[in-house]
């Protein structure tokens, strides 16, 4: 009987040690998961900020392209007027 009680006690101590190590592993895994989730959230926030900055830059580029097209049209008009003026002055 004493041997049985001794074996049961040893078994309980081993089970408790295993349970404690599993608990520590679970706590460590939980901490790592929380850390990973925090990192993912930070990365998502950074990506959203970069996306907003890219959108603003694209809008500025569109505005610049529209201004450049308008400038080119005005330059073409000016050249056409100069050619017309030169042509009419030469033919007179």
Strand content: under 5%
Radius of gyration, whole Å: 39 Å
How would a textbook summarize the main sheet? none
**Cα end-to-end separation:** 134 Å
Q: Quote the average pLDDT.
A: 84
How would you spell out the order of helices and strands? H
Low-confidence stretches: none
Number of strands: 0
Label the structural class. mainly alpha
- Please give the share of residues in helix: over 70%
Principal-axis shape:
rod-shaped
Number of helices: 1
Description:
98% of the residues lie in helices and 0% in strands. It is mainly α and 92 residues long.
What's the topology here?
Elements lengths: L1 H90 L1
Spell out the key features of this protein.
mainly alpha; rod-shaped; 92 residues; 1 helix
Question: What does this entry show, briefly?
Answer:
The protein has 92 residues and is an all-alpha fold.
């Amino acid at each position: 009987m004493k041997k049985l009680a001794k074996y049961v006690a040893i078994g309980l101590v081993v089970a408790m040690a295993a349970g404690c190590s599993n608990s520590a592993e679970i706590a460590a895994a939980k901490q790592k998961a929380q850390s990973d989730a925090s990192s993912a959230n930070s990365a998502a926030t950074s990506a959203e900020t970069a996306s907003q900055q890219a959108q603003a830059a694209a809008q500025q580029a569109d505005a610049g392209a529209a201004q450049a097209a308008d400038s080119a049209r005005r330059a073409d008009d000016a050249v056409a007027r100069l050619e017309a003026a030169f042509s009419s002055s030469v033919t007179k």
